[in-house]
Amino acid sequence: MDYVYYFGYGANRDLDMIKAITGSEPVWGKEAVLKGYGLYLQPLKFVVDPKDFGQDDSFGARTRLQGKWGSEFKSYVAKKDQGSSVIGTIWKFSTSDLRWVNNWELVDFGWYKITLDFAETKVGEKYLCYVQYLTENDKPGEKVNGLNYETYTNDKQQMLNAASGLRDRIKKELFG
Predict the structure, then answer these.
(1) Domain residues of the chain, as ranges?
(2) Which of 73, 75, 110, 145 has the lowest tally of Cβ within 10 angstroms?
């Protein structure tokens, strides 16, 4: 099995959330800091959607989020920001688990981009991790303290149920 490192922030730094998204236990998780990124609380209205570009027949990230969570939805997002840092968890898990996480985070619908960057644990271990982030052209919303923030922006149990429900629906569609 192939393994990767993923830096999870916000709800994705929590083991319960990772298990709800992927349906499996990661190999391990270590608290870490991602330097050179700021943490923001992005309102739904700032989430990129193809409709912003005249593609009215497209069904993008904002449309999907609004349908599930309503217009008051907010989520943590990371954006490159020198001098800032974000605390989270480095997860070691399978490449298929990374696909589940990217699916949950609507990467294919343009909400996030993916990069590889180093995160560092409290004891100085550095890991090259997959990180979901916004580009310089994306509107992030209000900046928050990336080293001291609440893990969940929405009700935890509702988010866990939504993540495991989405995974179950996709499995059913793919495998019957």
Answers:
(1) 3-175
(2) 145
